[in-house]
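Batch manifest, entry 17 of 40.
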Amino acid sequence: MGNMKVAVMTDIGRIGFTERPVPSPRPGEALIKLEYVGICGSDLHYFESGRIGNRIVKPPFVLGHEAGGVVAEVGEGVSHLKAGDRVALEPGKTCGRCVFCRTGMYNLCPDVRFFASPPIDGVFSEYAAHEAALCFPLPDNVTTMEGALIEPLSVGFHAARQGGAQAGMSALVTGAGCIGLVSLLALRAMGVSKVYVTDIEQKRLGKAIALGAADVVNARERDPVDAVMSLTGGLGCDIVIEAAGTEVTTAQAVQIARRGGTVVCVGQSAGGSVNVPMTVAIMKELTFKTVFRYRHIYPIAIEAVASGAVNIKDVVTNVFAFDEIQSAFEQSLHNKADIVKSVIKISGD
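Output type: structure tokens
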């Protein structure tokens, strides 16, 4: 099929373009013509500093793992997909043999090959060949841009599940970035009617209200602990999803969680560790859960969008053309007050 355009991180803070051969799908794979790829917080970390913990980028490297597109070709043995099908790509191919895969916790597979997790290239490119079983068909009323957002939405659903979300509960989400907002959407879809959100950027809090938050707290203006305790009649929240990844918000999560509640840690701190007020946590008998990606959630997330239970497209604040990817990364990194979620339009209408 000739060559394709690929956006390559050539150095910290720099993305350029090159051409590579369009891959041919191997048995069990599908070739996807990509239409939309989201910019994730992990992409921004790699772009800004070249690493996340012990995962270090060695340029040239291709970022991007939130992808939606159209099947261009299928490899031998693929029967559930055909050319023209619109799909969302689950980005992690696991080994299928380790104890974690065999017990259903495949997101913890130590041998996962995950798009844009070094040394595996991502999919800021015109085409990608991927395991066909990880290409999920989209219903007619779900766009490929929404398909690209199924990946972060799956993180939100996994967080809500880890918290044991159900009707009648109350919840707090700390941080109104993309992951905080998809956690809000997932909590609401799972029946939690009172979801509060804290952040320091008013425009992000406005987005949270638009997406269904019961109330929001600007931590620059009000003490989040006092505000949320007042909103909950002094009880605190059944679930707190910590999506900001800071020591301050983690401490607030412990203080705001009600006695016997659950704190779900999703956000990763820049330094890799935080201090937790453990005496408070012990006296409240809190449960701590953590989130690493997701498992068995793509079909649920796609159905939630298709049914209207989740309005994922309104999380997006900015859509950039493929040729604007350098500017898209710079703006997403340095203008967090206005940009909540950026998506790159690779191709399509």
